[in-house]
Amino acid sequence: MENKNFKNRRDKVLEQMTNGVALIASGSMHIRSNDTEFPFRQESNFYYLTGFNEPDCLLLLCKNDKRSKVCLFLREKDPKMEMWVGKRLGVKVACEVLGLDEAYDIAMLEKELPALLKGYSSLYLDTFSDNNYLNISKKVSNELFVSRSIDISPRNFIHLNTLLEKQRLVKEPYEIEQIKKALSITTKAHHASMAMVKPGMKEYEIQAIIEYIFKKEGSEHDAYGSIVAGGNNANTLHYVENSMSLKKGDLMLIDAGCEWNYYASDITRTTPVNGKFSKPQQALYEGVLDAQEKIIKSIKPGVSKQLIQEKSELLLAGVMHDLSIIKGSFEKIMEEKLYKKYYPHGIGHWMGLDVHDTCPYKDVNGNEILFAEGMILTIEPAIYLPADDLDIPEEYRGIGIRIEDDILVNSKGFENLSSDIVKTVKDIEGICARDYKEFL
Ligand SMILES: [Mn+2]
Predict the structure, then answer these.
(1) Distance from residue 354's CA to the centre of ligand 1 (Å)
(2) In terms of domains, do 106 and 185 share one?
(3) Distance of alpha carbon 259 from alpha carbon 276, whole angstroms
(4) pLDDT tens-digit profile of 270-294?
(5) Ligand 1 centroid to residue 370 C-alpha, Å
(6) What pTM was computed for the model?
(7) What's 96-121 look like in SS3?
(8) Do 184 and 163 have their domain in common?
(9) Could you say which of 139, 167, 195 is where a domain stops?
């Protein structure tokens, strides 16, 4: 994306400010063990406003009644370090390359910052973060506050998300394109996993084919840790061990998606390990699928997440009632929320630069944010029936099913961005019977 697009985003943030400085820290390298580090992934807000992917930066958006300016602290060039760990942009060319007003060496942050914060009354920053550069910024602003020689110094600390969360909630056409591209790769990976799975394989073998396809197709990162859960493991919601054998007669739940240009995809499919659903598996699966399709069809501008949450609970409770998974009248199941035991989570979440995008579900007055054109959310109804729960009829014990798609709200209602990934019993069984190499 071009510099002017990032500038447009920064301008929208600056428009909301009166007299203040927004401080947005980049990501940092994190130690994995001893002297090895986790792979670097840029912090989403920082990326959203700069498109710059180096660690150890601090972006300042400054605004008062006279003017606004954008400053970046970043790592200075260092030939020795660059030989070991890669090129740095450096201070000298940063303004020109990134389209900014001022650039400084991050090593000089504590020295340069007082002059930049003087005269501003508000600081917008991630108040929960313990990022070192934000801590230095807070220290500097405190020193300015107690100094009597300055008329105006920062005294209002406001969470950065108040400036960004609504903007990130509504996706630009460019952002939707990135998510579609991520999904085209994720589609291949899910189809390959369906074709490849056989009894006796390990969960991590399936994980490997999925992540192989992500990488082979050019995705820089997985959007989150892949879940490959055979049988009862699907009932552990964030199962990421992926270390067990896949058994004949079990289902396999896969929750995996790649990133494309920092934009996420988030898809879950549930597939029979031996390629054919058993009768009870099919009955439960088609119940969840029918619920998912009904929920997706009800998405349009003006609808709230609360409304589709209630709809999902009603539909999934109906499935559990009809299959006698929960005994008793439907009214009792709803009234006492008995379905919660087997459907304990929300129907979905916002998705964008983060798989769980940091956008609000309610406004400052506590009212539901209504769906509007350009918002993207996941729809992921599920039923989890643990193997050791003796209240459940035996044939359903140890089955966990989740079906998740990524949905764009548009003027007509919705677009299912992941509709290419098969999910009917017939289509899944069809792909299971094929050679996984077709999907590589
Ligand atoms: Mn999800």
Answers:
(1) 11
(2) no
(3) 31
(4) 999 999 999 999 999 999 999 999 9
(5) 20
(6) 0.96
(7) HHHCCCEEEEHHHHHHHHHHHHCCCC
(8) no
(9) 167
Count up the domains in the chain and report the number: 2
Cα-based distances in Å from 286 to 28, 183, 231, 319, 337: 45, 23, 17, 9, 22
* Ligand 1 centroid from CA 440, angstroms: 25
User: Are 376 and 306 part of one and the same domain?
Assistant: yes
Domain that holds residue 13: 3-167
Give me the count of residues in the chain: 440
User: Cα–Cα distance between 186 and 438 in angstroms, integer?
Assistant: 15
Active site residues: 35, 238, 255, 266, 345, 349, 356, 380, 384, 402, 404
Residue with tokens 């119940």: 287
Q: How do residues 297-346 score in pLDDT, each as one tens digit? A: 999 999 999 999 999 999 999 999 999 999 999 999 999 999 999 999 99
Residues 34, 84, single domain; the answer is yes
The residues with which 20 forms a beta bridge, in sequence order, are: 63, 122
- Same domain? 210 vs 271: yes
Show which of 106, 139, 167 is a domain's final residue: 167
Q: How far is 267 from 113, CA to CA, in rounded Å?
A: 43
